[in-house]
Amino acid sequence: MQINVAVNDRAHVLEVAPHALLLDVLRDVLDLKGAKRSCDTQVCGACTVLVDGLAVSACTYLAVEADGRSVLTVEGLADGESLDPLQRAFLDAGAVQCGFCTSGMLLTARALLRENPAPTREDVLHYLRGSLCRCTGYRKIVEAVLAAAETAR
Amino acid sequence: MLRPFTLHRPDTADEACALLARLGEDAAPYAGGTELLLLMKLGWLRPRHLVDVKRIRELGDLTGGPRLAIGATVTHRALERSALVRVHCPLVASVARHVANVRVRNVGTVGGNLAFADPHSDLATLFLTLDATVALVSPRGRRELPLADFVRGPWETARASDELLALVRLTPWPAGTAAAYVKFGVHERPTLGVAVALQLDGAGPGGARSSGRSVRVADARVAIGCVSPRPTRAPAAEARLEGVAIAELEDVAGAAAESAAATVDPADDLYGSADYKREMVAVFVRRALRIAAARARGAEPAARFPHAVVA
């Protein structure tokens, strides 16, 4: 099936099978390796991308669903060499250790801040439920999201 | 990886039902895919055709009136954020906010949740306290049946293979009803879900705050999910609560919770032993009732329980 999809603001016309998963198309067709396959069951958040601004698990999302929509992956966050405020906040707070969860964390936080520019700590924790990190203990990730929100205000 | 299938995208319920009737067991209705695609990846389900129902306009409607009608393709996120739901069934919006995680809520649908009949569903349990009925359409016509009859057991419903779940209807509680939903578990899906709703006699819209001891429970609803093969009401517990004064509810809660625990039909599994689950039913029905009792007095209890979510 043919789909028209904007990925990180770049338009693509792709031929994909109905059973192709968005994650595989992003990684193997478009060579965008930021979204990771980990649990493969929508539990961990490592494959999170935004479709029309909404966080989805690309591992369990048919690529054909992205037809006519706009997809944001972690590769689309920075503007050239200039980091997105969330990326900057993650670096400043030391919220990145092994990095495997980082792309999903950043995109989930991006969706949160778009919906709620002034989240409380509780809001951040609630929104990041289902985004698993096995290194940081979450504290620095939450601090980074709160700091990015603060900077943006 | 998914096995190949043909994707159909009908624009009307008639077309969808005709496809389901023609393709029979080879086809599965598909909306968010948050349950279906998981089982397809595992190879436990191998439909050769998926019938995408998201283009059927009326399935996406959410409408008010004496009863709240929630179309099958309304997502958990839409339910969580709907002003209509927040006004008429505020606890439904709060519970929707705690289903799975934000990615699943963005994509997963209410109809998919109910039609999948996973025994660990939050919504089915809560909806039992709202006199839920579901509408099914097929080439043979339309029928509406209570949710309690629709969900027959784990992953089993009364839906025939050519039927489409169109919507679920809820009857909002009267103003002043005190309610709570508590779920508990250490796994991705809850071990236990408890919904309680206490309709109060003599309470205004603000609850029993100013009315003192004269306010009594006119109608009690207790539903328990995840533990038995399907979510069920607990009539014995409900009977113990009816007529009880709000001021005495704290004392009666324990006994009512014990009667609820006596009626469940738990099995040993990875979520715990049957005895453990029965004990947890007693504990969490008591806690849910105490939360509802506090809300009846206009107070929001600060109580937090390990591994539990209070909505």
User: What are the secondary-structure elements of chain B, in order, as H or E?
Assistant: EHEHEEEHHHHHHEEHEEEEEEEHHHE
The CATH superfamily of the largest domain in chain A turns out to be: Beta-grasp domain
In angstroms, what separates the terminal alpha carbons of chain A? 43 Å
Shape of chain A: globular
Commentary on this structure:
Chain A folds into two domains: 2-76, Beta-grasp domain (Ubiquitin-like (UB roll), Roll); 85-152, DNA polymerase, domain 1 (Orthogonal Bundle), CATH 1.10.150. In chain A, 34% of the residues lie in helices and 15% in strands. Chain A has five helices and five strands, in the order ββαβββαααα. A five-stranded mixed β-sheet of chain A has the order 2-1-5-3-4, covered by helices on one side. In chain A, a hairpin with a 2-residue loop joins strand 3 (48-51) and strand 4. The radius of gyration of chain A is 15 Å and the shape is globular. Chain B has 311 residues and is α+β, with helices and mostly antiparallel strands. Chain B contains twelve helices and 15 strands. In chain B, the strands form four sheets. Chain B has a five-stranded antiparallel β-sheet with strand order 4-5-10-6-7. The mean pLDDT of chain B is 94. The interface between A and B is medium-sized, with 26 and 23 residues.
Summarize the structure.
Chain A has five helices and five strands.
Could you give the topology of this structure?
The complex is a heterodimer of chains A (153) and B (311).
Chain A: E1 2-7, E2 10-15, H1 22-29, E3 48-51, E4 54-57, E5 70-72, H2 85-93, H3 102-115, H4 121-127, H5 139-152
Parallel strand pairs in A: 1-5
Antiparallel strand pairs in A: 1-2, 3-4, 3-5
Chain B: E1 6-8, H1 13-23, E2 27-30, H2 36-42, E3 49-52, E4 62-63, E5 68-71, H3 76-81, H4 83-88, H5 90-96, H6 102-107, H7 110-116, H8 122-128, E6 133-138, E7 141-146, H9 147-150, E8 151-153, E9 156-157, E10 164-170, E11 178-184, E12 192-201, E13 216-225, E14 232-233, H10 235-241, H11 249-263, H12 274-296, E15 308-310
Parallel strand pairs in B: 1-3, 2-3
Antiparallel strand pairs in B: 4-5, 5-10, 6-7, 6-10, 8-9, 11-12, 11-15, 12-13, 13-14
Helix pairs in contact in B: 10-11, 11-12
